[in-house]
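re: that chain from earlier
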Amino acid sequence: MIGLYILGAVLLFGAFKFLRGVYYIRKAKALEAEIGTLNTGTEAVKAERKAEKAAAVVALGFVAEADLDTENPAPVPPERTAVLDAVRSGDWEAGAAYVEAAGKNWQERMERVRPLAEAAAEDDAWLLAWRAARPSDPTAALVDADTAIMVAWNVRGSQSGSRTTQEQFRLFRELLVKAQEVAHEAQRLADPADPTPYIVEQPIGQGLGYSHERYRELWAQVVGRDPKVLWSHISGLQYWCRKWRGSHELALGFARESAAAGAPGDLLSLLPLIAYFEQETDEDDLAAETFFKEPEIVAAVDAALLDLAAAGDDHPGTARLRHMLAYLLFWQDRDEQAVEQFRHIDGYIGCVPWSYAGSPKSRYLYARDWAVGVSTPGL
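^ sequence. v structure.
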């Protein structure tokens, strides 16, 4: 009998413990739900404040998020739009005349070749007709070579090597070998003073993995014809970056040499800025808010501002330099100067540094709206 009493007491105590546990579990869940509600409310408040700030920035004349162009670094000239429409309809002669109009402004020549190559990478019927009609035309060969590069890079994609398949790499290499053949043909057909067929070979060397010695030989062909083509320097810097065929030290050394070779207005001061940006992007342990405030980077930004003032807005590379300056000035807490650059570039974000982000619009808006907010009283 005593045993039954004891057993009953044990069961009663166990039931009490169980019910108490259920009570505390329910209480914890209720508390968790309350916290979740508070967090949701906090996030909602943050989102509301962010929207209000964004609206205030737009009210000052800046472009709304939905209207940001992520394809182009600057407004597309109407002439280029008309030419692209013409070639897509089969009028290759319009494309030929457009490139030839650049004359011996080699930077401008490359600026005109690239959009044609991008169009031909989607549909090359007009380019094939051009090449058939003028098989010895160096301009047609140049566009053909750059088109082959665009096709190869489209196959590879923009992901890192670890996220690119072996099949993509195989096709990428095969297509670059074909592009190399066309680039060499363009070099044979070109005016001996024209560096652009050699500039076109630069990304081929980057992708195929030219040795440092071979790439320096190619570089000598470029600068021997014109040492100040911004396009060629930017392409060369990519080869020397650690993510491709070099290192941070080699990339920065190349960038500094480029900047030193430029006169005010050549915009070669952009090269060190890109080199620092590439390093910060590549190294996880670098914090932008401290790294970009290093004295040598502040000095590089100052030099670029002087270079920009000397160049004016007529240089084809002005927009790209303004984009990089806006980003670095923001990180250096030079917000009023950053806003000056944002006013020039606003609306078009299709280039570095914004294009490296998973969400280019988010990176751009964070920097722009912060700089505008800090430098605008009452915002």
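Residues 4-13, 15-19, 21-25 have pLDDT under 50 and may be disordered.
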